[in-house]
Design goal:
Layout: H1 23-40, H2 42-56, E1 69-74, E2 80-87, E3 92-99, H3 109-121, E4 128-132, E5 135-139, E6 144-145, H4 154-168, H5 174-183, H6 194-212, H7 227-243, E7 248-251, E8 260-262, E9 268-270, E10 277-280, H8 281-290, H9 305-316, H10 321-352, H11 359-371, H12 373-380
Helix pairs in contact: 1-2, 4-9, 6-10, 7-10, 8-10, 9-10, 10-11, 10-12
């Protein structure tokens, strides 16, 4: 039975592994229950963070002293628990990120480590001090996350476009690229990770539908999805996107407003590269443009042609109208692709997440947008 926060309190029998049990599955269940209880009990969360620092982050502590540290939950993330750690004596600040339940089925953590190290070496991402089994300790950056309104501001658009181009210009050597491909079981010569990711979400959700809808109320909505029709739509979108021959570059893949930080006296910077991997540049741009609508999915706020032109002009660093218009046309089918990716992602999250966010409604809204006149018209132009 759930409590008033909607989570299941831990009981002694929940922490027992019986003879014949699958140990790996039981440990995963323990972690899911623990994360659920963390939301209920802030003290338990902070106690666990002390354990993480003592066990994995000893070099960050002064004489293993955790009693002088202040802990604060950082709001804004919808897949992870974020805790700011502040050592007022030595003026040090860190961020502990605890991965949400089942997120490692969606995010390849080994790929994340590899790309994080590359970006950190190039001073593009925050420093990661240590990874541990269900999270990491990283640098904490003072500043504020941009709002949905901020990313429509022309000055910020210019900075975002320029920073995105810097990210896209990073060259991954063949050795690194092959390692990344091996981690995600991708074949081909410097292939995009977009389509393997999308189809993985689709197939996983289809499997979840078959095994969960009978007893998981959250999964009942999956009965309303025509997976055969959705499969044909994805195939159509993939064909249209591939015809654009958009260059495959290192993408952020999740450039919403809260993943763009403005610090006092400095320019913006991108954070949270969990989904970063090689994909089509057009996807990264279109995906960012969809984020103008925010989590409320106000699609009328997505950029018009003039706003697209302004952004692309600064991304390409050119006044050449032909080049700018070519890239604008290149990104159009990827708007729909982005909706499908995040629609499937959100439905998967909704089956397992204990975070206070309506993933199911958000996922269905994103999938519905992919079929809407507004976004389907972008396909007809190509």
């Amino acid at each position: 039975m759930t409590n008033e926060q909607g989570v299941i309190p831990l009981r002694e029998k929940d922490l027992t592994i019986n003879v014949g049990d699958n140990r790996n599955l039981k440990v995963e269940e323990f972690m899911t229950n623990f994360i659920s209880n963390v939301f209920e009990n802030k003290n338990a969360l902070f106690l666990y963070c002390k354990y993480v620092l003592l066990f994995y982050g000893k070099e960050l502590l002064n004489e293993n002293n955790v009693e002088s540290l202040n802990f604060e939950i950082i709001k804004g993330g919808i897949t992870n628990i974020l805790v700011k750690v502040e050592d007022n004596i030595h003026q040090n600040k860190y961020l502990i990120r605890l991965y949400g339940p089942k997120t490692s089925e969606i995010i390849n953590r080994e790929r994340e480590k590899l790309i994080s190290n590359i970006l950190c070496d190039k001073n593009i991402s925050k420093k990661i001090y240590v990874f541990f089994p269900n999270g990491r300790i990283e640098e904490f950056k003072d500043g504020y996350a941009l709002s949905r309104e901020d990313i429509k501001n022309k000055d910020f658009q210019k900075e975002i476009a320029e920073n995105l181009r810097i990210l896209h210009d990073i060259q991954l050597d063949d050795t690194i690229y092959k390692k990344l491909q091996a981690l995600q079981n991708i074949q081909g010569n410097r292939s995009s990770f977009l389509w393997s990711t999308l189809w993985k979400y689709f197939n996983t959700l289809k499997e979840e539908r078959q095994k969960k809808y009978s007893f998981n109320p959250k999964a009942y909505i999956l009965k309303l999805i025509d997976f055969d029709m959705l499969e044909s739509i994805i195939t159509e979108i993939q064909e249209l996107c591939c015809k654009k021959n958009s260059p495959v570059v290192l993408c952020h893949c999740d450039l919403l407003s809260s993943n763009i930080i403005k610090t006092e006296g400095s320019s913006i910077s991108f954070i949270d590269f969990e989904y970063s991997c090689p994909m089509e540049r057009a996807y990264d741009i279109a995906n960012h443009f969809n984020e103008y609508a925010g989590f409320n999915c106000e699609w009328d706020l997505t950029p018009n042609r003039s706003e697209e032109y302004h952004f692309i002009k600064h991304y390409l660093k050119t006044d050449d109208e032909q080049l700018i218009n070519q890239l604008i046309d290149e990104i159009q089918p990827f708007y729909v692709c982005s909706h499908i990716v995040w629609g499937l992602w959100a439905l998967l999250q909704g089956l397992h997440s204990v975070i206070d966010f309506d993933f199911i409604n958000y996922g269905m809204t994103r999938l519905t947008a992919a079929f809407s006149v507004k976004f389907r018209s972008k396909l007809e132009k190509n």
